[in-house]
Predict the 3D structure of the following.
Amino acid sequence: MADLTAIGSWDLAAVQHFARRAGFGIGPEAAAALAAQSPGTAVDAWIDGTGLDTSLFDAVWADRADPVAAPGITASTTVPGSVDVPAVPGPHRYLVDGAEAWRNDLARGQASWAFRMQFHPYAFRERMALFWHNLFATGWHKVNNVALMLKQIAMLRAHGLDRFDDLLVLVSKDPAMCLWLDSVLNNANGSAIPNENYAREVMELYSLGADNGYNQVDIAQLARALSGWSFTVRAADVAVNPASPNQRVAADGLFAVYDGGANPAGADGYAWYNLSQARATLPDQHGTGTIAFLGQSFDIATAPAGMMPGEDAVRSIVASRPQNCSEFLANRLLTHFVTARFTAPDRDDVAAMIRAQGFDLRAAMKLLLKSRYFFDAAHRFALVEGPVSWTARAARMLGPALAPADAASPKGFPSWALVVNPYFDLAGMKLLDPNGPNGWKEDASWLNSNTIRYRAKLAAAVALAETATTGSPAVKYTLFPTDAAAWFPVPPTSPTEVFDRLVALLQPAPIPDPVRAAWLAALWPGTFTWDAAGQTRARELAFLVLCSPAGQLY
């Protein structure tokens, strides 16, 4: 049984456990301050993002100098035939060697999100977006549009704590998802046979689980209800490749049902499939009549007030199958936030709590993350951390805060654009580009003999002040500008003090004493000194901690 009653007090270790799972870690000083607060009040504020000052991040993020840029890549101004995307800044507008670069670059999209994970004060919102990205897994290699991929992540970021049925509808309307699972090809007009891809996956992968409360007839009927679900593009949102004027991409998308009506993007708007020819009227792909879905009837030609045709059928998934849906969500939430080794009664208790909260995700997450079950000692360091959050957490702990990074000259920002490509993929999680709609398996599935060696590459980039060269002429720069001396508020006087501080920052699972002793003896075989050489050895020790078996757990 999962004890979901709230804890009444907590200590430093409990705070750090919470911050590792519900964000990207927390430093020991900040953890001590949080431990002095009531856990109920602190967890609520953490989840709600109250009391956070995001003004500096917002200013840096809006700066057209592009915070994820490497040397040789700078902001540019709008050029004729192209369009800026201020709603999704960062990877969309930049120069490479003085020439306008094509915006549709996966690595820069990945980098912009990694930058947010490292620096944004509202860590829980980024963590929830990462969780939903794995559940509603959508891939760039088919969408082929970084702006739309980041639009989807922005939607998950903004609505990841809404009611689940509301979130499910938003995902169903998302332009990247419409491309990814072929909603744009779903035509039920006349004798056309609907495309069932999204109708199947919205139940199998996104809300109920395989063959859990629905059948093939339900899939076919839902496909009819969702026929014509697509998007249009405003003229102002058509971006042109400066190097190839015939190559165009949608910088944004506006959801629409292709039912033969007026283009909601306006008379000069475009259908998703042809950004060279405006059309005032959309094709007719939406079916008509009544469907029978999950034991209910729906008139798919009309819609209740405030909904699009077919939307009430999507919403009915949660209402018609609350137990199946809550159990599905409980499985996913437990595996990501608590433990992959939960029992069926544990799952049932969490599912019942989700139902009792009316599928309000904010309320459910507050109850779960304040519970005795979450804080149980058996669940600490019980999960293998995914490579993206693992790297972001290491960068948060060892890198400078945003204010000193922004004040440094040159800017002390990590060169995420060169770190993510190819190492996120090789370490097992190609951010924004899963292989398929079932996303990535978690926990122990993150580790194998291949992925672990690329974690070592990521650890080296963060801890060892590694450099890379890019551009023409070539520019050499540090991937993660860090100051090893700044890791220590007080200069250490012994190898043990170095080890203790790095453990407090990186928070691995307990490292056996013989391993610790062997590391320190190898790094400091003689007299301890805290000079440049000693700081290099501290970097090497941080690398060892990150690469150790204990360093993979959180």
About this structure: The first strand starts at residue 73 and ends at 74. Residues 5 and 371 are 5 Å apart (CA to CA). The chain is about 45% helix and 10% strand.
